[in-house]
Design goal:
The complex is a heterodimer.
Chain A: E1 6-9, H1 13-24, E2 31-34, H2 58-61, H3 67-71, E3 74-77, E4 82-86, E5 91-94, E6 99-101, E7 104-107, E8 126-127, H4 132-140, E9 147-151, H5 155-166, E10 170-175, H6 187-198, E11 203-206, E12 210-214, E13 222-225, E14 230-232, E15 235-238, H7 247-251, E16 260-261, E17 273-275, E18 280-284, E19 289-291, H8 296-311, E20 322-327, E21 330-336, E22 343-349, E23 354-361, E24 364-371, H9 374-386, H10 392-396, H11 402-406
Parallel strand pairs in A: 1-2, 1-7, 2-3, 7-17, 8-15, 9-10, 9-15, 10-11, 16-18
Antiparallel strand pairs in A: 4-5, 5-6, 12-13, 13-14, 18-19, 20-21, 21-24, 22-23, 23-24
Helix pairs in contact in A: 1-8
Chain B: E1 2-7, E2 13-18, H1 24-30, E3 50-53, H2 66-73, E4 82-84, E5 98-100
The chains are: A alpha/beta, B alpha+beta.
């Protein structure tokens, strides 16, 4: 049994960062970091990009060297599952029977990729992508002569499709909605990314339901669509979202509502319990709503908040939510949320693969989606946080620099 | 290997041996040095690994890329010697490099 201190459940990017920050902030009590996966905390974003393409190694992927945790008095328990949290006793119970008490608890349990409940979902070659182990399985299926069916035209699906093409494999993206990125990007962006991927050999089947994964000997060799069509493939990546892993929190009686409900300082309905990352539903002060953000930037912002609150530091300044995606030679960066926006303004030229889409509410920028346009992303992010009206004519005119627009 | 000195905004110095091939940002993050957040992990997507390269190292660390330049344009307290440390690759040439951190990355 540990002597209280902080227990962090979930040893991903957010949980690992929270542990490291507590030590940076000179927290003196024990820290226990518990994760289900075998490796120490690592970064997930490269798994669909540089890691899949073989352009980065494990040392780069890993957040800190394995020795870091012992050297800094952080007990790292990997390959371990938490069975229950007893908030009255401030105790975490592991499946293997171990028990630990805490003074403060941080839940960083992330999200679990959704699998499709359809016939053949258990076949070999039907995969999801969340962990390094998933990425290794996927990598083994990609290469010249292979054909990957991607279910879901979201970020994961499109990044994997781009990486698959890079590795010489064919890729077909099957999307339920009439356009890709329907949940997360505006129609102009959807059209741009569809064309860009098509130009690089990716096939799209839009507005299609997947009803079964078919094959022989327990392996997948085709995706059956609702209209009867069969799409041949050697492997399937299912990228259709990832619900929050909030079961532990719900069972412990914490407020859960499509994610663990936290305040701006990452505190749950129990003041001794914090939560961060994909598993949380957090306030969005700029937009007057709550939201479940699924991004590294959000997890790290919340890690800074939780660690600050635990050691009694002043809370960090409010950040504008942002995220990015790399596909081929495209750097797609986006900030803010288009909530409440009443007009869309495009700056730059999609045909040149260098442009940004601004979502405005009157003259105030609510969100920006930028393709190979870092100044528009950075300037937009700044203006979103400032809630300052902008001159829309200047914003639409690329001969006026973003610095001037933001001045 | 290169010996790199990271100086926090408060003046606290950290001297670290960083492996060739890693970035100056990775050298800081992997050793848990405060002051470099590197939210995007080195994708040049966030500008939260801003450092000031100290003389006489500016030339040896090379030029900013167009992407980096645009990102830095909107970062706070940018100076002529500002760089994004994820864009500086460590080599034997940089043995002795000294970088300072800004007050905040956000």
């Amino acid at each position: 049994m540990s002597d209280a201190g902080v227990i962090i459940v979930g040893a991903g990017h957010g949980g690992g960062t929270a542990a490291a920050l507590l030590r940076q902030f000179a927290y003196q009590e024990p820290i226990t970091l518990i994760g289900e996966e075998a490796p120490p905390p690592y970064q997930r974003p490269p798994l669909s990009k540089a890691w899949l393409k073989g352009e980065t190694d494990e040392e780069s992927l890993t957040l800190k060297p394995a020795s870091f945790y012992a050297d800094n008095g952080i007990e790292l328990i990997t390959g371990a599952k938490v069975a229950a949290i007893d908030r009255a006793a401030r105790e975490v119970q592991l499946v293997d029977g171990r028990r630990r008490t805490y003074d403060r608890l941080i839940l960083a349990t992330g999200a679990v990729p959704r699998r499709l409940a359809i016939p053949g979902a258990e076949r070999d070659g039907v995969m999801v992508l969340r962990s390094i182990a998933d990425a290794e399985d996927l990598k083994a299926k990609l290469g010249p002569g292979k054909r990957l069916a991607v279910i879901g035209g979201g970020y994961i699906g499109l990044e994997v499709a781009a990486s698959a093409r890079h590795l010489g494999a064919e890729a077909v993206v099957i999307e339920k909605e009439p356009r890709i990125l329907a949940r997360v990007a505006c129609p102009a962006l959807s059209a741009f990314f569809t064309d860009y991927h098509r130009g690089r050999g990716v096939e799209f089947i839009l507005g299609a339901d997947v009803v079964a994964f078919e094959g022989a000997n327990g392996e997948v060799d085709a995706v059956r669509l609702g209209d009867g069509r069969s799409v041949a493939c050697d492997a399937v990546l299912v990228g259709v979202g990832a619900p929050p892993a909030d079961g532990l929190a719900a069972a412990a009686g914490l407020e859960v509502h499509g994610g663990i409900v936290v305040d701006i300082e990452a505190r749950t309905s129990d003041p001794a319990v914090f939560a961060l990352g994909d598993v949380t539903r957090r306030p969005m002060p700029l937009y007057g709503c709550s939201f479940r953000l699924e991004s590294v930037a959000n997890a790290l912002e919340q890690a800074r908040h939780a660690a600050s609150a635990i050691v009694g530091r002043p809370p960090p300044a409010l950040e504008v939510t942002w995220n990015w995606s790399d596909q081929y030679d495209l750097k797609y960066q986006f900030a803010g949320l288009p909530i409440g926006s009443d007009r869309v303004l495009i700056r730059g030229d999609p045909d040149q693969a260098k442009f940004a889409v601004f979502h405005l509410k009157g003259e105030v920028i609510q969100a920006v989606e930028a393709v190979n346009a870092p100044a528009e992303f950075m300037g937009g992010r700044l203006l979103i946080g400032q809630r300052r009206p902008v001159d829309r004519l200047k914003l639409a005119d690329t001969s006026v620099s973003m610095k001037e627009v933001a001045a | 290997m290169a010996k790199i000195t990271y100086i926090e905004h408060s003046g606290v110095e950290h001297v670290i041996e960083v492996k060739t091939g890693l970035s100056v940002m990775e050298g800081a993050v992997k050793n848990n040095i405060p002051g470099i957040d590197a939210d995007c992990g080195g994708a040049c997507a966030c500008a939260t690994c801003h450092v000031y390269v100290q003389a006489p190292w500016l030339e040896k660390t090379g030029d900013r890329s167009a992407m980096e330049e645009s990102m830095l344009d909107f970062a706070e307290n940018v100076e002529d010697n500002s760089r994004l440390s994820c864009q500086i690759k460590v080599s034997d040439e940089l043995d002795g490099l000294v970088v300072k951190m800004p007050e905040s990355q956000h």
